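Example 400.
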Amino acid sequence: MLTLEEARAAILSEISPAAASETVPLAQAHGRFTAQELRARVDNPAFDNTAMDGYALCAADLVAAGFVLPLHGESRCGDPPSRLAPGTAMRIFTGAPLPEGADTVVIQEDVKRDGDKVVFPRSVQPGSHLRRRGEDFRQGDVLYPAGRRLGAFDLALLSVAGVAQVAVCARARALVVATGDELVAPGTPLRPGQIYESNRLATLVLLRELGVEAVDGGTARDDPAALRDLLKTSMDFDFVITSGGASVGDHDLVKQVFAEIGQIKFWKVKVKPGKPIAFGRVGVRTHFFALPGNPVSSLVTFKLFVEPALIAWHHGVPRMPQLAAMATNDFRRHPGRTEFLRARLASENGKLTATALRGQGSHMLGPIRETNGFIRVEADSTGFRRGETVMAIPLSTDFS
Ligand code: AMP
Ligand code: MG
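Predicted structure in complex with magnesium ion:
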């Protein structure tokens, strides 16, 4: 059985990253992964300008004139840079070009107007309130490496940098299939022994949140022929993700069918929840994950294994940020597997706390409502006590 880290390393070493890319307008690049470096097309700021509304002047003129200067001219946003008449001050507005010959801006709150003259304080600092051309970045600077997923702020930066078209990685295509004779769709009445199917929808949504084109492959009965049928288009996909049927019960057929149609790299990892998880390949292109059926296990293993695989496929660098947090309750257990407890992370007086939620059974979805992170318990650990430092993995940044 592989450790968590071995399994993650094995997955990352197996992933064949996307070869295809496409060029899209910036407005359509949100959530996409960059296919190559993106460079600035212009300097930012594009020209010297003022950070405040006020008066542009030359500090040496100001001292020479005894801190009173005649007002001459105006620089507004959108104007081309003008020239400061020697020995004068120019009205200027935030973002407007600094006139040639000026080296200082004095904010309007600090001056007195006296007819055509402006009276300045003696405390003026030469060089203040300026934004210098290129002080943020310069034309040609690399703004993003390949493999960066672009968010709203990134689109703002790229807009300012004059980037109109972006080469992005092709989207991964993934097929999602659930397995189990007991599963029925919400909306139909349950017959005795049946349960509502939940993993497929959650998995599809998790995939779509990562920008993947996720296709609903339906639910297979616990019958190899039925499963083979649902998986017959596997090779058209970059990823196939199944849930259920991956352990060693008589009716756990997923492993068997994957062994027929592809190659299994591993099928057990020392993690809890989620020990039975198979990973491998069908044909040359398709990576498959057989995730466990228990709803919590399927969510946890998605986060631990599928998400990093997808990020790597899109040329990104998967990370699992961990934050030190103070445990608010005790948790005891037998060592053996790396465990991920559903947890509530909170910020108390600027310190992060982590509460292991009640109901850690891998069939229990109720605590998901409170869950905004995991507590990671190392394989050799027997747990923790209240007040001890634990490693928390945030799933959201809502720490209220
Ligand atoms: P399995 O991995 O098939 O042995 O299933 C483990 C547990 O998860 C069983 O209690 C199943 O009924 C349940 N389960 C399996 N697949 C799903 C699913 N797609 N949605 C909800 N529960 C499931
Ligand atoms: Mg099953």
